[in-house]
């Protein structure tokens, strides 16, 4: 197990009684933005060999179903939201498919300028750990202190025939970076020995349907000194739609991003395609995929927990 996560998953709390059990997170700042993370490791603690299926709520607002079929898997689920009160309830709701349980619960304050897509009526839910860096192929995890916001970044190894490149100089963030991607995430990138990077992404989410909206962020930075006559230039294409208005060239050692909302597909295709003027292949440093979740109500009576 990754050392940074091992302690968190060594214990759990389960709830055999009552249809709804809640944790109340207090002393929050009303109207501020937070990342909330619930962590789960079943590990066959009850000897049944069947992970339970239950629901997570934020107060009265549905967060997501917890449904992990692998009894030995380590899982977590993030939500980024604006809190409407000075407290927040995280509730585990029994739906008759086993006792709800939880291994860890984290709360991280975020600057209000980060993730501008999140507001009083809309949150972003990270399902199935879909926050990726392109680092070494050893399934390493990047989190705090490498990421001051304590986001968890896992290694993405699903780009066919890719090679990894790394920066030898310090990375820098663009001052307009509203996602504050950490330099440790951006210092590696995936590339190929051809004119395009192609891969697909499946939500792998039992609750997904044709109306589900997902928010994608792709991060780029040039990590190599490009010779004067060489050109790295490409288009970012998601489900046959080009996201960049002009051919894109990553900036040397400075993070940049493209983001957008997709909807209505069971599988999403991503292509980074070199332009006709390019002499170097495309690169990709990191990416995040969130489920867009409307927020209609969050708080409940704090005495209910």
TrEMBL record:
Residues 4-291 form the Malectin-like domain. InterPro entries: Malectin-like_Carb-bd_dom. GO terms for cellular component: membrane. It is found in: Membrane. It is a single-pass membrane protein. This is Malectin-like domain-containing protein. The lineage of its organism: Eukaryota, Viridiplantae, Streptophyta, Embryophyta, Tracheophyta.
């Amino acid at each position: 197990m990754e050392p940074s996560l091992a302690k968190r998953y060594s214990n759990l709390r389960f709830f055999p009684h009552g249809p709804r059990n809640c944790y109340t997170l207090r002393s929050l700042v009303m109207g501020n933005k937070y990342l909330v993370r619930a962590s789960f490791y079943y590990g066959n603690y009850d000897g049944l060999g069947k992970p339970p299926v239950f629901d997570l709520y934020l107060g009265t607002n549905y967060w997501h179903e917890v449904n992990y079929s692998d009894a030995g898997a380590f899982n977590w689920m993030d939500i980024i939201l604006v809190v409407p009160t000075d407290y927040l309830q995280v509730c585990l709701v029994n739906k008759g498919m086993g006792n709800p349980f939880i291994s860890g619960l984290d709360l991280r304050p975020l600057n209000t300028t980060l993730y501008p897509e999140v507001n009083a009526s809309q949150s972003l839910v990270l399902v199935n750990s879909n926050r990726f860096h392109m680092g070494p192929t050893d399934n390493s995890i990047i989190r705090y202190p490498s990421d001051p916001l304590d986001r968890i970044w896992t290694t993405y190894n699903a780009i066919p025939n890719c090679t990894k490149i790394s920066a030898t100089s310090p990375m820098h963030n663009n001052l307009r970076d509203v996602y504050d991607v950490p330099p440790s995430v951006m210092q590696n990138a995936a590339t190929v020995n051809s004119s395009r990077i192609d891969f697909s992404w499946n939500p792998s989410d039992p609750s997904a349907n044709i109306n589900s909206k997902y928010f994608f962020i792709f991060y780029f930075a040039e990590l190599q000194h490009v010779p004067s006559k060489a050109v790295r230039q490409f288009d970012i294409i998601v489900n046959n739609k080009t996201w960049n208005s002009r051919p894109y060239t990553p900036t040397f050692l400075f993070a940049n991003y493209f983001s957008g909302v997709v909807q209505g597909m069971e599988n999403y295709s991503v292509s980074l395609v070199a332009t006709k003027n390019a002499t170097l292949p495309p690169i990709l440093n990191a990416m995040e995929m969130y489920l867009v979740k409307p927020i209609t109500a969050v708080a409940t009576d704090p005495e209910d927990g």
